[in-house]
Amino acid sequence: MDRFTAMEAFVRVVESGTFTKAADALGRPKTAVTRLIQQLEAQLKVKLLHRTTRRVTVTPEGMTYYQQALRLLGEVRELESTLSQTRRGPRGRLRVESSGTISRLLIVPALPTFYARYPQMHIELGVSDRVVDLLSDNVDCAIRGGHVKDESLVARHLGDLCYLVCASPKYLERHGMPHHPTELAGAAHAVVSYFSSLSGKELPIVFTRDGERLEVQGRSLLTLNETNAYLAAGLAGLGVMFAPRFVVEPYLTSGELVQVLDGWHPESRPIFLVYPPARQQGAGLKVFIEWVMELFSSRPELWRHDR
């Protein structure tokens, strides 16, 4: 038995919660992963995992072994990455998750600069507003909006995105120009609503002006949970919408959208790059984090309300 391979298989099983997902992540048959864990338990003379037909749980001894194995594997990867980077620069495959608009408007257009620096890196970019489980889905890092509640993840604050309230000229012709946020909850107006993929609840619009804070749950005809479709609904005149400034700015310039409720600003929303602590030792992830931090810091217009 290769002790290092068995240790890595055990860590993957613990993180993913199933032998099947661990085998997929390692690129090995499930039977091979099962055999490695059995051999490891026999070698250590201790039960590391409780297995049923539905789930895998870690024994107290298994948790102790997992924590130490995680540290040792991290040190080995750090050593390998340091030598590899010194010799030929970081290389390998990195799985990243991000929303549709951030991927389309920020990450993908800037990727040529990343590949110019690190030509031997390969990015797998999962594009969705769905909040994935980074460990069980074998994701190295994700770019997420909103406060990070999962304390098991490392969160790097990229900034606080500026949001604007807009409507299409077609909508304003039919419903008129709203002058106060509370009008959005009345019968005369409608909003395009966005619901959380985690809670399933519609997100209210929280406005601020001169220190005043006002939360409005607008009257909606349509509720979505994907940002590109949400933008399309606003452009189609289905209601007043609020979206990051970098998303709507081109449409404000072209006249396809009009900014409304002058003086009232939706609360800024924090955006983070998150990753499991076990992944932070890899050279590929390190350079990607540095590049993303640099990318977001170089775009001050993302964070300002002034136009």
TrEMBL record:
Keyword list, A-Z: DNA-binding, Transcription, Transcription regulation
GO molecular function: DNA-binding transcription factor activity; sequence-specific DNA binding
Transcription listed as a keyword: yes
Domain of life: Bacteria
Database matches in CDD domains: PBP2_CrgA_like_3
Stated name of the protein: LysR family transcriptional regulator
Family statement: Belongs to the LysR transcriptional regulatory family.
